[in-house]
Design brief:
alpha/beta; 17 helices; binds adenine; 13% strand; four-stranded parallel beta sheet; TIM Barrel; binds zinc ion; single chain
Length: 337
């Protein structure tokens, strides 16, 4: 797009990217080999015949759950601390090239632990990647632990207890909590108890809501204490709730290319970017699972620009809100503005 160089140079903050969603088909095959892990048999699963075949399958996701099947299958190649560290590092290098100065990144420990990888290994690897990005690239980073909605609450509770007993919030290793995975189906308030406990400890909370699910999922997330909403695009269907979100300054972390790939909207033009701007709803633009959705953060910025032809002033508002709503100290915000 004509503003490509401007968008690249704009100091960006990313708030919605799953580190496991940065696992490219190339890296899946490489780590499967390195760790001696058998991928699904290509005789029964032709998409696993090659890197190219797997990449081509990613063009045809039919829903969030169809994507999640591949996302959870792919991450099974992650076993050792350095697998997690390498994955995080590969993301931060790309983010840096895209002009990201601050990144808040999700990870799904329950899913790895259910495969026998200890919580300590996962956290040590991902935070090693974060520290390297801070040291070598000058990025600031925040790790956000996500609970997943497709596993029992008891599994989320077990992870939460490890997070608490390690003192990972107080130590600044993990800065916040979120929830993700299947939206429609499991109870909207399944993490009520965990979020109440975390809120009492002043741990920043976010939640995936209003991606496939209707606005009542957003309402439930806010009621449980989320101060940020991941996706949230269906907020436009509830004008009253939208007014409240605007008034309270709740940030939506919007992921346009993800929404198209997962068929939440037919095209980027239907992501309610213009309506959020007009309603004064704060949002940031993010990549979600860049290895699966065909683009990192700058591709998402460019896709929004192609669809909406925003002005330089509008871009400055988006970039400024992204800084102001980041979970960082005021002194770091001042550096980024
Ligand atoms: N986990 C990874 N990407 C996700 C998405 N787009 N929605 C819900 N859970 C996810
Ligand atoms: Zn997400």
């Amino acid at each position: 797009s004509p503003l490509h160089d401007f968008l690249q140079g704009l100091p960006k903050c990313e708030h919605h990217v799953h580190l496991e969603g940065c696992l490219t088909p190339h890296l899946i095959f490489q780590l499967a080999d390195r760790n001696g892990i058998a991928l699904p048999d290509p005789a029964a699963n032709p998409e696993y015949a090659s890197v190219e075949a797997l990449t081509a399958r990613y063009d045809r996701f039919t829903s969030l759950d169809d994507f999640l099947h591949f996302y959870f299958e792919g991450m099974a190649v992650l076993r050792k601390q350095n697998d997690f560290a390498d994955l995080a590092w590969s993301y931060f290098q790309q983010a840096h090239a895209d002009g990201v100065h601050h990144a808040e990144v999700f990870f799904d420990p329950q899913v790895h632990e259910s495969r026998g990888v200890p919580y300590e290994t996962i956290v040590a690897g991902f935070s090693e990647g974060c520290r390297r990005a801070e040291r070598e690239l000058g990025l600031t980073t925040r790790l956000i632990l996500c609970f997943v909605r497709h596993l029992p609450v008891s599994s989320g509770k077990a992870i939460y207890e490890q997070f608490i007993s390690h003192g990972h919030f107080e130590a600044g290793v993990i800065h916040g909590l979120g929830w993700s995975s299947t939206e429609v189906g499991p109870p909207k308030d399944m993490f009520r108890e965990l979020y109440a406990s975390a809120a009492q400890k002043k741990i920043p909370l976010t939640a995936h809501a209003g991606e496939e699910g209707d606005p009542s999922y957003i309402h439930a997330a806010l009621e449980l204490g989320a101060r940020r909403i991941d996706h949230g695009i269906r907020l436009v269907e509830d004008p009253e709730l939208m007014q409240r979100v605007a008034r309270d300054g709740v940030l939506l972390t919007v992921c346009p290319l993800s929404n198209v790939r997962l068929r939440c909207v037919p095209s980027v033009e239907q992501v309610p970017v213009r309506r959020f701007l007009e309603a004064g709803v704060k949002f940031s633009i993010n990549s979600d699972d860049p290895a699966y959705f065909g683009g990192y953060i700058l591709d998402n910025y460019c896709a929004v620009q192609e669809a909406f032809q925003l002005s330089v002033l509008e871009w400055r508002i988006i970039a400024e809100d992204s800084v102001q709503e980041s979970w960082i100290e005021d002194s770091r915000k001042a550096e980024l503005l």
